[in-house]
Amino acid sequence: MSQSFNYRHLFYFWVVAKEGGIARAAERLDMAVQTISAQVRELEKSLGVSLLRTEGRNLVLTDAGVAALHEADHIFALGELLPVRVREAASGQTLRLNLGISDGIAKLAVHRLLTPVLDEPHLRLLCHEGEFQPLLGELALHKLDAVLADRAAPPNPALRTTSQLLGTSAIAWYAPPLWAEAAANNFPHSLAVVPVLLPTDHAAMRARIDHWLERERIRPRIAGEFEDSALLSTFAATGMGVMPAPVSLGEHLAQTHGLVQVGTAPDVQEQFHLIYSARKVMHPLLTRLLEAGQGGMLLN
């Protein structure tokens, strides 16, 4: 980095870009407009490019400004984490693992997927549930160490992510006692008769289930759709209807919710991926997860 480069100048530019103008940035920082403007000009001078341009009465980013903002997002996101990471390192005790959990993944599977690291004596596990794309954005900004999801990350050079398949599981159908006999009789065509509960289409499994139902020429009697897999199993347990879930979780569903397996859809698989940013120094717990999940057999 050139000695003429100043991170304070970058910070002022970053605030201007985030606030959408120099006046609003000056108000946020409680500084004079002229001071902020001068700091941004110094940054442009050190980089040798224009980062902002006027468009009518608005100030907009140039292509170089967009690139600078993207890098500044990374830099200042890491800066926010610095005090926490330094204090944890100084204590010599806490090993922090910050994970994003895609809302489409079967929550019952998350604990099993993380089993290889849960015996770490100084583990501090932070799990953040959210939608798939926003979680990838948080990962790109290094606010997360990794994301657990039901699909691989789409190709995107800007995100610089890598996906590894940790495990797969065939799908079975589970019913509460109220509907177990009717659902098992003439399965899978019984799904056109008994009430069916499904994940919403935010879950990758939903498209596979819809394709399977179409192939079997079944028009299901859909009684409910749920974004949250835990909520789906809760409503199934109350007797609202029959639900699909990974075979690997069948024993848990029977013990905790009293649900009975009434049939399988072996052609439908749920996938579990660990998505992470490639770094020169990998988080030791991510390395442990990746080694345990080699071959995609972690749930078997």
UniProtKB/TrEMBL annotation:
Protein name as it appears in the record: LysR family transcriptional activator of nhaA
Organism: Acidovorax delafieldii
Gene3D superfamilies registered for this protein in UniProt: Periplasmic binding protein-like II (3.40.190.10), Winged helix-like DNA-binding domain superfamily/Winged helix DNA-binding domain (1.10.10.10)
BP GO annotations: regulation of DNA-templated transcription initiation
Gene Ontology molecular function terms on file: DNA binding; DNA-binding transcription factor activity
Keywords from the named record: Activator, DNA-binding, Transcription, Transcription regulation
Keyword hit for Ribosomal protein: no
Similarity comment: family membership: Belongs to the LysR transcriptional regulatory family.
The UniProt record lists the keyword Nucleotide-binding: no
Domain (HTH lysR-type) ranges: 5-62
UniProt xrefs under InterPro entries: LysR_HTH_N, LysR_subst-bd, WH-like_DNA-bd_sf, WH_DNA-bd_sf
Coiled-coil positions: none
